[in-house]
């Protein structure tokens, strides 16, 4: 069910021919085809793809509402210029025609290779058939159709006191390989305004999706969209915000587990930084450092590389005040080796999910990221697109 | 000859037992054991190793002079705290005793694993023997003894009108694997002051060593030292500066060719940026992007990833003004695909050294870096230290 679990939404997925065989188009729509409040968070990349530019513009112009979201995978419609913008508009128009709604209330997302025009003939031919398939049972088809190099569909549902929240996502990191991007679509039957949802979604995305760092790259197409049918009335707003956060967190972990070539996931916490901002910089610098990532792949508790990465992050850093722990086992104190239980450490390093804390001992700043190891699988998936 | 090619220097290398079998200690000294003008450039990492801290302090205190440099490989004496500082001092003192010079005029460098104390018994036992081996014929032994995961020794000589400049280096990038760091040692028989050499060396390092980006990491031990015996009198300072630049460039290319797991080297030029500083940021962001690096490994001219990396670098960026060329063949213009000669492009991508220009079309800012591809060899060398 996932995205159709909340009252008032239907979904579908189909094979249009962007990819060779697999499902490659998805549609999520308000059951009555009427616009509902919508909120979205987009990539910060200045090389943003036409569908991102179009959605931003539409939500700004129509006051934050949408009747449907049409998505294709296999081609990102990025690096396609003005022709790409016309293609995104045509996709929205085709969906609107099939649904009998205003094109300005249709959002568009694309994910896949960059720099190649969308096969618009196939997309336009498939859209009416896709719209006919819309049903409450179509959620899993839609969740499958948005995938690129993902191995599994990512879906989640949270049932609140007075509302339901559903979601699906794709992505193997902030950006994934050939086939780029993370996309997430959330629906709810709670009655919330676009403004309320925007604030809640932005905060949740910051604390979940934006803490996942597969390769430090930022996609041209990243998009998270939340639609609210309002069918079940006003929620407790705090409970609702918390549910959005938990749903995003659930989808984030599903993405992390499916990351490109991933063999090990790392919950990396930087504490004691001069500020939260400095903690975030340090965490990012550590999680993106290839020497660190290789040591994670090898299950090697090489704390010297963590401090080396933190020390070159451009933040306040005093080796003698630092402390590094793997799975709660302190291995370094004051910038040098600390005696520790080798057997317990080795056991922790064998886990698929390891925990690291780098304590800087300077202030109260803290940040957490989910890091992914760097192994041969990542290179295999990313060295050739054609 | 390399480092002993200039008049007035002797060198030696030996096996002390820091590594299992190979040479692991080097000594370079003024032939008459008297201090000569010296200049140095060090890592910017705030987790700098004790030998770096010691050398910085000594050069500041003695007005920029040195009679010798003692080096060990296999252990970086980093992440070793106050005990590590005492070890670095003891190394210098041992060399000074063997040479009959003041310990304050001996510089110390270490490279290798982080976080493990130096085996001082072996180092101190080997030092007198090492000093006895000093000769004009010892340059290659010294160049071999400073290596870690390097496959070949890196040496170069430039003969100017009135002077000779020699050099040796180790390193597989700004930081290399288990065994970290880049080190370079230069000697000359020109008569130049410490101040003159410091300015010249800093500028040369910025334009050579600092443009090499294997993995974006900054070592705890990076050091470049230049010693001048003065035996052949005043040089033309411009010719001398140019020679230092060319020697550093030669050593940089030798390091790039030997980079960890490297199969392809990329001369990446960013032009048309709003400023040189923005060009450097863009070049760094591109050269460190794992998706880009994987595409280099695969010989894939995936320009979309280059623009995606530039667009997320936080600099001024307007897709419609950009142009991307591989080997002078323009493959993208205005942020979209540009018609090009596919056969010529494929031929260029097969080279071991490819050239890329990302033109941003905004201003006169330019920067060049030497990037290295990311292949399975890098992971193999970096996933386990023990």
Considering the chains and any ligands shown, give keywords for the structure.
2 domains, L-amino peptidase D-ALA esterase/amidase, 17 strands, alpha+beta, homodimer, 386 residues
Question: How do you describe this structure in short?
Answer:
Chain A has 386 residues and is an alpha+beta fold. The first copy, chain A, has eleven helices and 17 strands.
Walk me through what this model shows.
Two copies of one chain form a homodimer. By secondary structure, the first copy, chain A, is of the alpha+beta class. The first copy, chain A, has two domains: 2-257, L-amino peptidase D-ALA esterase/amidase; 265-382, Ubiquitin-like (UB roll) (Roll). Helix content of chain A is 34%, strand content 26%. Chain A is built from eleven helices and 17 strands. Chain A has helices at 50-61, 81-99, 120-132, 139-145, 194-207, 237-257, 276-287, 290-297, 303-311, 342-349, 376-382; strands spanning 9-14, 25-30, 36-42, 65-66, 68-75, 106-113, 154-159, 164-170, 183-188, 212-213, 223-228, 265-273, 323-326, 329-333, 336-337, 353-359, 365-372. Chain A has a seven-stranded mixed sheet with strand order 10-17-12-16-13-14-15, sandwiched between helices. In chain A, a hairpin with a 2-residue loop joins strand 13 (323-326) and strand 14. Chain A is globular and about 70 Å long. Residues 174-179 of chain A have low confidence and may be disordered. Chains A and B meet through helix 2, helix 8, helix 9, strand 15 and helix 11 of A and helix 2, helix 8, helix 9, strand 15 and helix 11 of B.
